[in-house]
Design a protein that fits this description.
Elements: H1 17-35, E1 54-59, H2 65-76, E2 80-84, H3 97-105, E3 110-114, H4 118-127, E4 132-134, H5 142-156, E5 163-167, H6 173-185, E6 188-192, H7 201-214, E7 218-221, H8 224-228, E8 233-236, H9 249-256, H10 263-269, E9 274-277, H11 288-297, H12 306-309, H13 316-334
Bound molecules: phosphoric acid mono(formamide)ester and norvaline.
């Protein structure tokens, strides 16, 4: 059994494939129990409910899924949670991350952090005496990876040997995290984008070493046929991430438009291929930013067409739901829940 009690969850690089497998199995079990109407802590997992425990949720960037997933998971596990938003706290303004970590450790049993550089969440964890969970940094989005792997397993049955193609900015949190997740779990990873958007040499090398153990292959290509051909999973993400300046939109649209996930990309892969997106997605001009982009650049769809987003091959809403089950598993395991076995 994986011993995850007391561990931080900062990036998948810190976890063995067996530990990731354990978290996925626990997620499937927690989901099944929730669907069966068994609130965690009430029956099967009765030794693992956490009455009297509380968790702090620090969000220096916006969130719908991650925040809701942590809050619902905490509630299902019988815990309290406190949301600390991008404004209205002392964090960063008057109080350092190191001091914040020590203050919150005195009141809470776990701390979630969403923000900017990975070094910030690593520093928070170094100073905190309770588990720290990364709810997204510029470099990594590890809780999202568990949900994505879970969704792939639900749809395709297995992970090992599957081909996952990521189209878009492959050097940011989602691209980096997919490369690590695939290398760990034995999926073949392809980043399909202009060379400038390839992941860093350092991370690629690290992932290739991990992939040598798992049997995964890592491919970086500018060629859409090579990228999408025979893919089992095609995924993408917004072209401009939270915290990036508005000025980059024009260049991103120019550079990444050829890598839009559209009917051609999905047809290259074949009917069996599923589409995933961490969300939020610009698949129409129905949002504030979407409308501005349409007005300025004359496009109403960006990283994915509405047709693909709404198609039967798209599993984005199941993927979003799985954020909650997987985040519950991370909280549960790191705070010392009973074995899922
Ligand atoms: N996918 C994801 O992290 O969504 P939120 O930004 O809504 O949390
Ligand atoms: N790359 C995106 C992911 C959002 C979940 C961002 O960082 O904004």
């Amino acid at each position: 059994m994986a011993e995850l009690k007391g561990r931080d969850f900062l990036k998948l690089l810190d976890f063995t494939p067996e530990e990731i497998r354990y978290l996925l199995d626990l997620s499937h079990r927690l989901k099944a129990e929730k669907k069966a109407g068994i609130a965690a802590g009430k029956q099967h997992l009765h030794e693992c409910s956490f009455p009297g425990k509380n968790i702090a949720l620090i969000f220096e960037k916006s969130s719908t899924r991650t925040r809701c997933a942590f809050e619902v998971a905490a509630s299902d596990l019988g815990m309290g949670s406190t949301y600390l938003g991008p404004s209205g706290t002392q964090i960063g303004g008057k109080e350092t991350i190191a001091d914040t970590a020590r203050v919150l450790s005195g009141m809470y049993d776990g701390i979630e952090y969403r923000g900017f550089g990975q070094e910030i969440v690593e520093e928070l964890a170094a100073y905190a005496s309770v588990p720290v969970w990364n709810g997204l940094t510029n470099e990594f989005h590890p809780t999202q990876m568990l949900a994505d792997l879970m969704t792939i397993e639900e749809q395709l049955g297995t992970l090992r040997g599957r081909k996952l193609c990521y189209m878009g900015d492959a050097r940011y949190n989602m691209g980096n995290s997919y490369m690590v997740a695939c290398a760990k779990m034995g999926l073949h990873y392809t980043a399909c984008c202009p060379r400038e958007y390839f992941p860093s040499e350092e991370l690629r090398r690290k992932c290739e070493e991990i992939a040598a153990e798992s049997g995964a292959e890592i491919t970086l290509t500018e060629d859409i046929r090579e990228g999408c051909g025979a893919a089992d999973v095609i995924c993408t993400d917004v072209w401009v991430s939270m915290g990036e300046p508005d000025e980059v939109w024009e260049k991103r649209i120019r550079d990444l438009s050829p890598y839009q996930v559209n009917r051609t990309a999905m047809e290259l892969a074949g009917e069996h291929c599923i589409f995933l997106h961490c969300l939020p997605a610009f698949h129409n001009a129905g949002t504030g930013i979407g409308k501005e982009i349409e007005k300025k650049f004359g496009i109403s769809e960006m990283e994915v067409t509405d047709e693909v987003f709404e198609s039967a091959q798209s599993h984005v809403f199941r993927q979003a739901e799985n954020r909650m089950h997987t985040i519950k598993a991370v909280i549960y395991a790191t705070l010392g829940g009973k074995s899922a076995e």
